[in-house]
Amino acid sequence: MHTVVVGTSGVSASDVLAVARGAARIELSEEAVAALAAAREIVDALAAKPDPVYGVSTGFGALATRHISPELRAQLQRNIVRSHAAGMGPRVEREVVRALMFLRLKTVCSGHTGVRPEVAQTMADVLNAGITPVVHEYGSLGCSGDLAPLSHCALTLMGEGDAEGPDGVVRPAGELLAEHGIQPVELREKEGLALLNGTDGMLGMLVMALADLDTLYKSADITAALSLEALLGTDKVLAPELHAIRPHPGQGAAAANMLAVLQGSQLTGHHQDDAPRVQDAYSVRCAPQVAGAGRDTMAHARLVAERELASAIDNPVVLPGGTSQAFGSGGGRVESNGNFHGAPVAYVLDFLAIAAADLGSIAERRTDRLLDKNRSHGLPPFLADDAGVDSGLMIAQYTQAALVSEMKRLAVPASADSIPSSAMQEDHVSMGWSAARKLRTAVDNLTRIIAVELYAATRAIELREGLSPAPASRAVIEAARAAGVQGPGPDRFLAPDLAAADAFVRGGHLVEAVEKVTGPLR
To answer: At what positions is 2,3-didehydroalanine (Ser) found (predicted)?
Structure first.
């Protein structure tokens, strides 16, 4: 089993994916354990002083003005977890919760939170045991981090609330911890707050969306090339020298991918035949420009994710030295800050949703063109076997259009909104969790949209008799048919075919089939 070692300097995107999706085992480095202990000494020293320190000896949010006496501080930490575990709605996915917990552990291990080593180890133990807290859809405003989702996770560490066991059954968290020999934590000063205050949920969903979109953008290049081929279009617009004079990196990569797929095709270059065209339609000719812009958006989002993965997000944070009045025995201090605000992550989540909506939109336009006998250059109406008796893919395009319409609604930015909370103390929030949740839906829908284009384009190519498709295209058709995506013929129950196409794209098999012929795509 793969092991991820968590140190003090953050984690990588591949670490997040390994834990969230691959059930990798987690270990704490010696450096992390030492940093945890050192930061805890600072917190303990501050807790012993009479001066109030936010998060250590005060209330929280709008209640931060109350000084909490020592005998009530453990109760304060328990109470913040219990009261903040106030989510509602359906459960979020297991992989999201695992990413959320792992990224909170990443910050805890930075040595800037004041959490004891044993609490961090318990977090790792829960993840390693395959115990997944029940976290709900609604409850985060994305400022003070993902408070409610993280609170449900912290509740599990305390042995309270519900969690899903490794067998997929939801049971009381205390029972699951006992079965795996995990002792519930007794929270001390600052620890409850430190477990709740981060951008971990939205960041985890960003990392996973980027991984999925990387495959989907390659898939969209492939289906765009297949549609160009099926429409007897020209590949001259993909020439490297044309894209070199507008040097957006993503555009060049998309054009190169399409050109690689079309290498050796007998179907391209027939735009001057029976019904001459000076140029192909925008949805075909400008495919690299649209997909490329999305790729460049992903590059920016990836940069933001990498910075956030290297960050320690908490409020307050433990810092060494300085001139603050809140000093520990080693000269450390605890300082309030605003690093928990989710704006950097929220913005790129919304950017990606906009780009994904546009990619889905242009794919649908190509599909519609394949089905329209007036624009498909010799293909039968709706790619039907006996048009009129058969409807062909008419309603498959309806489904695709409905998905595109939903994508456009999901592209409305969540981060443009803000709603005040906590008696106006938290008067501007990021809505980053909401941006992440709708991006997950958008990525899911984009997969289906690309699957419908794949289904239509492969059928259309097979209906072009007498001309051979590119070797890569032929490999796609053969792999798709082997995967249960059926080819041309009389009308049949279509949903199973579309589901098979969806699974073919979602599992990365479309890209795999092409890369066996072309080598790695960009």
So the answer is: 144
Q: What are phi and psi of 166, to 5 degrees?
A: -60, -15
In the numeric block, the tokens 């994305």 are attached to 142
Of the chain, the percentage scoring pLDDT greater than 90 comes to: 83
| Nearest of 300, 311, 305, 304 to residue 338 by alpha carbon | 311
The pLDDT of residue 433 is: 95
Report which residue type is found at 148: A
DSSP run (H or E) holding 138: strand 136-138
The residue type of 353 is A
Residue 327 in this model has a pLDDT that exceeds 50: no
**Rounded Cα–Cα distance for residues 400 and 396 (Å):** 6
The structure tokens listed for 96 are 């999201």
pLDDT in tens, 366-393: 999 999 999 999 999 999 999 999 999 9
Tally the C-alpha atoms within 13 A of residue 289's C-alpha that lie toward its C-beta. 10
The model's pLDDT over 448-459, given as tens digits with 9 standing for 90+, comes to 999 999 999 999
Q: What is each CA distance from 444 to 12, 14, 98, 447, 502, in whole angstroms?
A: 24, 21, 19, 5, 10
How far is CA 111 from each of CA 105, 314, 400, rounded to the nearest angstrom? Answer: 11, 11, 49
pLDDT digits (tens, 9 = 90+) for 86-142: 999 999 999 999 999 999 999 999 999 999 999 999 999 999 999 999 999 999 998
Distance CA 243, CA 228 (A): 18
The mean pLDDT of the chain is 93
Positions annotated as catalytic residues are 54
Q: Find the Cα–Cα–Cα–Cα dihedral 217, 296, 204, 194, rounded to 10°.
A: 180
- Residue whose structure tokens are 């420009």: 289
Torsional sign, CA 164, 168, 172, 176? negative
Q: In this structure, which amino acid lies at residue 349? A: L
Spatial separation of the C-alpha atoms in residues 448 and 452, rounded to whole Å? 6
Return the amino acid letter for 480. A
